[in-house]
Specification:
The chain is an alpha+beta fold and 701 residues long. The protein contains 26 helices and twelve strands. The radius of gyration is 30 Å and the shape is elongated.
């Protein structure tokens, strides 16, 4: 109570401090680097990551791209090549004139190599940068190359993807927040009992969101997914806490004549219930930190921090605002559109066996669809972007005009004899889907001796330790075909050079697939175990955690199983995040009803009366909370042109509705079915007996 009274007493200083903290928060938010490259979240000990570092260290080459020039004379291409070479952080540009003078006919090249870089109307050159794929300087270089080369040039590669993704995110993110705020406001205006209170909630939650985004500066950087979703998610998840406080305050005002005393009592009551509620949500987010693919840790830390700040704001900033604005808040109150739920709840309980049958019938198809969820995911981040984006057009041209869907780089020991390298290249070219292996031996062919090549040309593909080969593949990155191809190529490489490495987008994505498959199982297990333990400690019961998690997990199975039945694909990170977010965020609905059910049973109510009371008193809060989360995420899902953001928000919106319906209809039926077992396995309920000694108000209503 001391804390509650302190908040009430120092309400003005709390609001002043909150406003002052917004200044460094805005600065910190603006200064936080955003990472748009998914591949940087792979574990550092993976061969593909090690190989990428070797390439940068030995060859001074990091990012890699192809430039495609349409309908342009070779002299103009050569002129543009010179300009591209002058762009900061461009290390090497490989084209025909890198080896021969333009006066020498291109036909001198081996036919297979000539056709790799030329079609009837276009030519292609390879560009290496001396900086990483998602480094700011590399992105600036790609922008400058696009500016120099004009509309007849198309830039492919991961950096081009990152540039387009960043531009689209920066354009859309303010609209995400605006949509979430507007739709959440509409939801609260409809379902709450005041015209002004939704905006007070948004002011309090908004301050905590800014504080969360500002403190991300101390993490060094955050992913673009975290940046795009964190504000919307924090609003959706922490709105419940504000609703709890407001309802509690209104109840306490009827008991206390002084609104300050009422608020102190409300803070104390809310703090107890919100801590229990928020711990499950935090546990869900912390579970993401157990991913070896560290994007999960990035999102998990930021969202867990956001929930903690949400709780803090709910018991400090929000009470202060409510007390300052108490008179207008009381004057602008209105009736909620949610009617009394007594009759509805009675109807649900009377036909509870129907809902048990529905529960049983849903399990098999929902679980089957959920199990197939990972079969429907995609790992190619290019699929996140709209078709009209520059990167998508460039990749389509690369695939359609040159039949190149992905490019691998091979680092092979520089001491390996040229004869062995040629033999290895010959074997690699026999692998299905390999168009051509481009190395020093293959590019110059047998007609040009290596000895006549200048050292500057040799240094492009050779260092003291490594020789660099490029493999063009007909198979797109992240496909089953390319993964099998990489496995075969790796087998051939290791036969000739056990230290050799295959790197590039497709090999990295192959590692990502294997990593996240393992992560999905780990995160699901950790989140269920953690939340099970929390419910066990909060409810002091062996059976209630099983019942609650079973109901919410069915909601997750339905939500993640629907894309399989609807023929929809999801980004690889979606199932992992949604399974933990939906469990952590919506299990609160179930805990709310369970706590009331327990209290009623311990207080002497019969089974039916306890379940009925718990149901009808909980429904308004569950609807407000569920619809709030739906409103905050659904608008973003409908608006966003970034598929990964759109699909995650759609699943969060749908998941909140599914969980809400299951808690309202299935959970009471489970209580009715298992009441005896619950009483026997729950501390404080073991002496409860069903029968004449209990009060069954329900039957008399």
């Amino acid at each position: 109570m001391r804390f509650s009274k302190a908040v009430v007493k120092y309400r003005i200083p709390i609001l002043i401090l909150t406003v002052l903290l917004m200044i460094p928060s805005v600065i910190g938010m603006a200064a936080t680097r955003v990472n748009y490259d998914m591949l940087t979240y792979l574990p550092e000990d993976m061969e593909t990551v090690i190989g990428q570092n070797e390439l940068l260290e030995d060859f001074n080459k990091g990012a890699f791209t192809f430039l495609i020039f349409d309908d342009m004379p070779k002299q103009d291409v050569a002129s543009l090549k010179e300009k591209v070479e002058g762009v900061d952080h461009v290390d090497t540009v490989l084209w025909y004139d890198s080896i021969f003078d333009l006066s020498v006919p291109m036909e001198l090249l081996p036919d297979s190599v000539y056709s790799e870089f030329n079609t009837d109307h276009s030519t292609m050159m390879a560009v290496f940068f001396d900086s990483g794929t998602s480094d700011g300087v590399t992105m600036d270089a790609v922008k400058e190359i696009r500016s120099i080369c004009g509309k007849q040039c198309f830039v492919s590669g991961m950096t081009a993807l990152v540039v387009d993704l960043k531009d689209l995110c920066e354009q859309e993110e303010p609209i995400y927040v605006a949509l979430a705020v507007i739709l959440a406001s509409v939801s609260m205006l409809l379902f709450l009992d005041g015209w002004l209170i939704p905006f007070v909630f948004l002011a309090s939650i908004g301050a905590m969101i800014l504080l969360n985004l500002g403190t991300n500066y101390f993490l060094g950087e955050i992913s673009y997914i975290t940046k795009a979703l964190s504000a919307v998610l924090q609003l959706a998840v922490t709105m419940d806490y504000s609703i709890f406080l407001w309802h509690s305050y209104n109840e306490q005002r009827e008991k206390y004549s002084d609104n300050k005393e009422a608020m102190a009592a409300a803070i104390k009551e809310t703090l107890t219930s919100v801590i229990g509620s928020s711990i499950t949500t935090i546990a869900g987010f912390i579970a993401l930190c157990f991913m070896s693919f560290t994007l999960g840790r990035d999102l998990g830390i930021v969202m867990a921090k956001g929930v903690l700040l949400g709780v803090l704001g709910c018991v400090t900033v929000l009470p202060s605002l409510i007390l300052v604005l108490d008179k207008p808040l009381q004057k602008t109150k209105h009736r909620s559109i949610i009617p009394q739920m007594g009759k509805f709840a009675k109807g649900v309980i009377k036909i509870f066996p129907v809902f048990l049958v529905i529960f049983a019938l849903l399990i098999a198809p929902a679980y089957y669809g959920y199990n197939r969820a990972n079969d429907e995911v995609y790992y190619d981040m290019g699929k996140c972007l709209p078709e009209e984006m520059n990167f998508v057009i460039a990749n389509s041209k690369l695939q359609n005009d040159f039949d190149i869907a992905s490019t691998h780089m091979v680092l092979v020991d520089a001491k390996l004899p040229a004869k062995s390298v040629k033999s290895m290249i010959s074997e690699m070219e026999q692998v299905d889907g390999v168009k051509y292996v481009l190395g020093l031996e293959s590019v110059i062919g047998s007609r040009v001796p290596q000895e006549i090549l200048p050292d500057t040309v040799k240094s492009i593909v050779e260092s003291d330790r490594w020789e660099l080969l490029l493999i063009n593949s007909e198979y797109p990155a992240a496909s089953d075909a390319v993964n099998e191809q990489i496995t075969q190529l790796n087998g051939i490489l290791k036969k000739y050079d056990s230290t050799g490495m295959i790197i590039g987008e497709a090999p990295c994505l192959k590692d990502m697939i294997e990593t996240t498959d393992h992560d999905f199982a780990v995160v699901t297990a950790v989140s269920i175990a953690a939340i099970f333990l929390i419910i066990l400690l909060v409810e002091k019961s062996l059976t209630l955690p099983i019942i609650l998690i079973s109901v919410i997990e069915l909601g997750i199975f339905i939500n993640l199983g629907l894309p399989h039945y609807l023929g929809q694909s999801m980004a690889f990170i979606t199932p992992i995040c949604i399974s933990t977010i939906q469990l952590g965020a919506t299990v609160d609905y179930a805990i709310l009803m369970t706590t009331r059910y327990k209290a009623e049973r311990i207080g002497g109510s019969g089974k039916k009366t306890a379940v009925w009371t718990a149901l009808y008193t909980s429904i308004p809060s569950i609807i407000v909370s569920g619809m709030g989360m739906f409103a905050a995420t659904f608008g973003v899902a409908m608006y966003s042109n970034i598929e990964i953001v759109s699909s995650m928000c759609l699943l969060m919106a749908r998941g909140s509705i599914i969980s809400m319906l299951l808690v309202i209809f299935i959970l009471p039926a489970m209580f009715m079915l298992m009441d005896k077992i619950i009483c026997k396995t729950t501390l404080g309920m073991t002496k409860i007996k069903s029968g004449k000694n209990t009060m069954e108000v329900f039957d008399n209503e």
